[in-house]
Amino acid sequence: MADAGPGGPGAAPRSGRGGFHRLFFALWPEEAVRARIAAEADALLAVQAARGRRADPRRYHLTLSFLGDFPGVPDDLLARARQAADAVAVPAFEFALDAAGSFGNRSIPWWLGCRVPPAPLLALWLRLDEALAAQGVKLRRPGAHVPHVTVLRDARERLPLTPIAPIVWPVREFVLVDSRHGSDEGYVVIGRWPLAAAAERA
């Protein structure tokens, strides 16, 4: 079950705020992992003399399921997404970010990710997708699962797949994020689901 608290994780967002809301489930790194990602990204971008927009380390995340962009938060969608997350039963696990690379779309984002998607992460993706589908939530996914954390946007050129020193990421929960464009709040975690607790309920 998601935690709750006024203005913090689990707090229901208000509909009708300025700008639009981008909703997605994600893995949210703990501070030690976030710091290691930032350090590796700094080193990589310095060596590559990369030009572009660096991602704010406070916003580092690994997207699991993208729910869409909305002018306000649809209460029904939010309720069904929470019910789906409550139904996910996957044990806690850890994996490693062990490569850097990029995608070939217009913004050419550079990322840190996995050369081979780890089985526990794929299992979490599958269970969450199944639970969302059971709740009638239509996902917006451009292609195959590619686990990654974006560290640079609007790069001038693509980055070939490059090995990095592994960054071990303990996964003890997944979260629901509201990215509030047009406001000063940025990314807001509005729900947390501990994996260990979910496994115990199974």
What's the short version?
By secondary structure, the chain is an alpha+beta fold. It has helices at residues 31-47, 75-86, 119-134, 195-201; strands spanning 20-27, 53-54, 62-70, 93-102, 110-113, 148-153, 162-171, 173-181, 186-194. It is built from four helices and nine strands.
User: How many angstroms separate the termini?
Assistant: 13 Å
Give the low-confidence spans: 1-18
How many helices does DSSP assign?
A: 4
CATH class: Alpha Beta
Radius of gyration: 17 Å
Chain oligomer state: single chain
Number of strands: 9
Mean pLDDT equals 85
Given helix and strand content, the structural type is alpha+beta
Question: What name does CATH use for the topology?
Answer: Cyclic Phosphodiesterase, Chain: A
What fraction of the residues are assigned to beta strands by DSSP?
25-35%
Largest sheet: 5 strands, antiparallel
Strand-and-helix sequence, N→C?
A: EHEEHEEHEEEEH
CATH architecture descriptor name: Alpha-Beta Complex
| Total number of domains | 1
Task: Describe this protein's structure.
With 202 residues, this protein is an alpha+beta fold. Helix 2 (75-86) crosses helix 3 (119-134). The strands form two sheets. It has a five-stranded antiparallel sheet, covered by helices on one side. The protein has a four-stranded antiparallel sheet with strand order 3-1-8-9. The chain is globular. Helices cover 26% and strands 33% of the residues. A hairpin with a 4-residue loop joins strand 8 (173-181) and strand 9 (186-194). The chain has one domain (20-201): Alpha-Beta Complex (Cyclic Phosphodiesterase, Chain: A), CATH 3.90.1140.10. The protein has helices at residues 31-47, 75-86, 119-134, 195-201; strands at residues 20-27, 53-54, 62-70, 93-102, 110-113, 148-153, 162-171, 173-181, 186-194.
